[in-house]
Predict the structure.
Amino acid sequence: MWNIWQHSFNIVFVLMIAAVAGMVFGALKALIFLCGVLLWMVFHHLRHMVALERWLRVSDHTAASIPAGSGAWDDVFAHLARYVRQHSQSQERLSSALERMQSATAAMPDGVVILDEVNRIEWCNPVAEQHLGINLELDTGQPIIHLVRQIPFVEYLAARRYSNPLILKQMRQQGLIISLQLVPYGYHQKLLISRDITRFEKIETMRRDFIANVSHELRTPLTVIGGFLETLSSTEEIAPEFNRRALALMTEQATRMQHLIEDLLVLSRLEDEQNKVKEKPVDVANLLSGLLREAESLSAGRHRITLMIDSREMLCGSEEELRSAFGNLISNAIRYTPDQGEISIHWEKRNGQGVFFVQDSGIGIEPEHIPRLTERFYRIDSSRSRETGGTGLGLAIVKHIASRHHARLEITSQVGKGSLFAIWFPEKLMIAGD
Ligand code: ADP
């Protein structure tokens, strides 16, 4: 170790040699010797300083590239090498921590944007780029309001009341609804957290629509019943004819409400994920023979109804649910087919799959309505649906039952010519019959 003592010893040693040389060779020679030693020392330090200056000038400072030194410089360079090594180790630790942080935030389902004290973007994760239409590379340093320009967001930023989130419909991505929340932290910095709530908002809209629809459906029969009850209770002498008509209409409305409640209960049972399909082999041919009799009684001779069984195969599923799905499609065919029309009910096996279909020669459906028919309460002609005892829930029930059996509902129709409603069951549900 080169230290101050060694340094002092060297100086004393040189001075002693100079003194001895002075005594032996005279003062002039001793002075020349001292000057030579000083020159050598200056040269020695200059050489190391140049080496140090060169090393400082290169951009890639690694411990290995530090020049070798001698004398006091050996110590200096050894210290420098240790410092560079420690620095690069802490640099590595920092960059691996940063990498871990970045991969963790990239895996987050929420978007995160770091904003500085004047709301300029400092950093964001890929989800935030997607939610807010930001490009981290291009937009770092940009004020966030230059990229998210909606007025409610600008007002939210300015109001500085960040306890509640802001719900925003993103214009850049059709249908995307996000919730934004600002969280202040550090020195006037903010975290902007974005969350995709499209699904929740859809469910919320569906819930609101559903309550509005059910209330609307119940209001009409209740108004009819309430009106008659009021008249009956305020009139002393009621004509028997009015009495009979009132009772008939009240019964009709009560039945309508009952059907609605029954269908709602069926739907809620079908939607309950805990309620699994109680599978057992279902004799479809037998089931359809029973439904044919019911259809004939519903039609009361107004239609020609035929049943064509081309397969004796059974189906693995819930008999109760299949009866409800097939029954709904058959009763729709009767209700939307004018008198003297034709209705045929089929059970076949095609390419291994089981297919049940009902074909009618009824009023048909315009193509734009077809994708929406399975929505709850969606009706093309509300008055016809209600007059014929419809609740607007039949096809929603059919669709649920089909999907619980991994089956597909297919609807084809031509206005004025008729419709075909088919349910395609997967091969794995087919069981060879006798
Ligand atoms: P509804 O109780 O109103 O019949 P559904 O869900 O069973 O409710 O049917 C939805 C709508 O689909 C009906 O209102 C009707 O407009 C149309 N629809 C259903 N089946 C047929 C069919 N076989 N022919 C023509 N239109 C039909």
Q: What stands out?
A: The mean pLDDT is 91. The CA atoms of residues 232 and 238 lie 7 Å apart. Residues 204-271 form a domain with the Helix Hairpins fold (CATH 1.10.287.130). The pocket of adenosine-5'-diphosphate is lined by residues 328, 332-333, 336, 360, 362-363, 365, 373, 378-381, 385, 390-396, 419 (CB under 6 Å).
